[in-house]
Amino acid sequence: MAHPVMYSDDDPGLAELRKICFGFPGAEERVSHGRPTFRCGKIFAAFGGSEKLRPGEHRRVGSALIVKVDESELQAIDEDPRFFLPAYYGPFGWRALDLADPEVDWGEVAELVDASYRLIAPKRKIAELDALSQE
User: What is the pLDDT of residues 70-96, one digit of tens each?
Assistant: First the structure.
């Protein structure tokens, strides 16, 4: 049974996130479990999800950005109240930020996506990205 679509193209932050993600070499969008994911082979960013509060209890965050965080950055991210532990992804070093917050810093979002991409993408795609940034 397919998952129902759980987003709309006019969800807060989705258009901006797409613009950022499609700036990375090899990036593509696929819907997985009813939500947009951005991939370069593997997922480097996802849109929408939930926060695990307690066993069996979740808070849905439809406009969440979910990214992989370098282990050295996890403590700082975890101390920032804007971020939360996304269900399913969290135990594997992923963190989430609600893009519906009117105070979202899109420069910071771009940096988070860049860092996640660099943890996930193949080395040749990272080299492509580095070459693009030197132009």
Answer: 999 999 999 999 999 999 999 999 999
Q: Answer whether residue 91 is part of any domain.
A: yes
Looking at the structure of the chain, the number of domains it has is 1
- Say which residue the tokens 């080299």 belong to: 127
Distance of alpha carbon 25 from alpha carbon 121, whole angstroms: 9
Cβ neighbours for 90, distance < 8 A, ≥ 6 positions apart: 52
Beta-carbon contacts of 19 under 8 Å, excluding residues fewer than 6 positions away, are: none
Instruction: Kindly state the tokens that stand for 133.
Output: 């940034």
- Residues near 61 by Cβ (< 8 Å), separated by ≥ 6? 48, 49, 50, 51, 84, 86, 96, 98
CATH number at residue 49: 3.90.1150.30
Rounded CA-CA distance 41/53 in Å is 30
| 116 assigned to some structural domain | yes
Model-level pTM?
0.95
Locus of tokens 């987003």: 7
Read off the pLDDT of residues 4-51 as tens digits, 9 standing for 90 and up: 999 999 999 999 999 999 999 999 999 999 999 999 999 999 999 999
| Within-domain flag for 5 | no
